[in-house]
Amino acid sequence: MRLTRYTDYALRVMIHLGVNEGRLVSIAEIARAYDISQNNLMKVVQDLGQAGFVETIRGRAGGIRLARPATEINVGRLVRHTEAGFMVADCAHCPIAPACGLTGVFAEAIQAFLGVLDRYAVADLLDQRSQLAALLARTVEPCGGE
Amino acid sequence: MRLTRYTDYALRVMIHLGVNEGRLVSIAEIARAYDISQNNLMKVVQDLGQAGFVETIRGRAGGIRLARPATEINVGRLVRHTEAGFMVADCAHCPIAPACGLTGVFAEAIQAFLGVLDRYAVADLLDQRSQLAALLARTVEPCGGE
Question: What pTM does this model have?
Answer without folding.
Answer: 0.89
